[in-house]
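Example record

The entry below shows one chain as it appears in the dataset: sequence first, then structure tokens.
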Amino acid sequence: MFHFVYSIMKFGQVENPGEIDFTLPPTPSETIDLLKRNKKKSELEVYVGCAKWNKADLKGFYPRGTKDELSYYAQQFNSIELNATFYNSPSKEQVKTWREKTSEGFKFFPKIPQSISHYGRLLNTDEKVKAFVDATVNFEDRLGMAFLQMHDNYKPKDFERLKDFLKNFPKGYPLALEVRNTSWFTEKKVFDDLVDLLEKTDTSNVIVDTAGRRDLLHMRLTTSDAFVRYVGANHPTDYDRLSEWVERIKEWKKAGLRRLFFFVHQNVEVASPLLAAHFIKELNKAIGTNLTIPNKDSDTSQGKLF
């Protein structure tokens, strides 16, 4: 039996972040070509958020007396990476409740349940996929994109299984994929085949930027959407890393990026809103977006980032 209880906050954590080369790899020509081919005149849509909204993880983010954490969170951010659905597929009623606590323009990005990705390993999961999709479509206009995160022991030898899963996934339901085994990235033919599959199934290629797993960091988009999961190191380098991301987004915007989904994690999650606020401020300045800067006018104190 595999042990799957781990957290994104600890994924890729290192003892000395200052020793890591955080330079982003260059954008491959294939990404620029794809963006240019699909370029539209509409403005870039940008969604930035955290992974959780509960008070236990985001201590100091909520003003005293906050009665509903999600409602307040949705006033500060325009999206949430919904990791809660990884552990249990939500009911329709739960999804409707979450939706009603947010306003127009807010988006949820639910993670595919582990019963499908980790325990089921994409085999005999049709009924579970149907239950998940039937529930989460009740987000209606608040549904951003679901993402399928595979365990790091899921290898290219099971490519055909992944291919069948993506080809049979409900059409029209937005989906992104995150693979974690090194061999998906280090073997050129394997990566090329994966990218080809994602393009043909209109599946976005999740980008993971975390200190201890630079092998996973790629810049190959497979749709006109960029889905970035950024894991900070609770270290001063986090600022420079985000500045480089701002420059990269400027490059992609010019080429024709349609939508950006950028989710900020931290090893110590309490600092996530503060780091996300810094990123939003820099992004607003660089590309002209007008995203709310979280807690900008609040008297609540989150303390310092480091």
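Notes for this example: The chain has one domain: 31-287. The first helix runs from residue 29 to 37.
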